[in-house]
Amino acid sequence: MDFIIDLGRYMADHSAELIDLTIEHILMVIYAIFLALVVGIPLGILAAKFKKLAPVILSLVNILQLIPSIAMLAILLLYFGLGFQTVVIGLFLYSLLPIVRNTYVGVREVADGVTEAGKGIGMTPFQLLMKVEFPLSIPFLMAGLRVAAVIAVAVATIAPYIGGGGLGREIISGISFQNDIRIYAGAVPAAALAIIADLILGIVEKRTKKRFAS
Fold first, then answer.
1. Alpha-carbon span 99 to 106, nearest angstrom
2. Do the Cβ atoms of 64 and 94 come closer than 8 Å?
3. CB burial string 129-168: b at 16+ within 10 A, e below
4. Which residues of 1-28 are buried (b: 16+ CB within 10 A; e: fewer)?
5. How many domains does the chain have?
6. What is the pTM of this model?
7. pLDDT tens readout for residues 108-143
8. CATH number of the domain that 25 lies in?
9. Residue 54 CB contacts under 8 Å (≥ 6 apart), including other chains
10. How far is CA 26 from CA 15, 101, 112, 140, 204, in A?
């Protein structure tokens, strides 16, 4: 109980700093997820449309996901240096797999009858993709986005190791000074961000499923 009181007092006393770190944490995640969507959606569509490319694309994004996060950031550090940009690139690479894979699955799962109907009314392959296949794959994409966001929030906590900011700065400072209160002052908001992102995107995912099911 005393620990919780001390933690609350510490967070209240350092609220301005913690808010700044939280905003920085959110920005890193948003930029990374945006890049992952811009790159991942076309890759997922390419994998779905060209069977020979699918194993290559999916294997590459799987390999990126398997690299330990601290190792990934260390490799990127050698090429891009310290700072915010390097963290965003690392989070972007970690967010690719769920977005690429779910876009791929979503496009592939569109019923043959639906695509045949589109072809029957004279749609070109591009029109079929943009007006039928991709819209129907959006619920799958949202599920991937949900996973990617939670992963990005978690991985962003090690950003300070390569000169980044965010809530990880408080966690790592707490580890360095063996201060449990500082560790929790960073970990609790980071966990809250992950939960909030999961809840909000979960609601959006359910709504898209209802919309496209009706």
1. 10
2. yes
3. beebbbebbbbbbbbbbbbbbbbbbbbbbbbbbbebbbbb
4. eeeeeebeebbeeeeeebeebbebbbeb
5. 1
6. 0.91
7. 887 667 777 777 787 777 778 888 888 888 889 999
8. 1.10.3720.10
9. 47, 48, 104
10. 16, 24, 40, 24, 19
Least Cα distance to 162 among 1, 28, 16, 27 occurs for 28
Confidence grade of residue 213 (pLDDT, cut at 50, 70, 90):
low
Provide the sign of the torsion angle of the four alpha carbons 132, 138, 141, 145, taken in this order.
positive
Q: Which of 52, 134, 56, 39 is nearest to 95 (CA)?
A: 39
Structural domain containing residue 164: 2-213
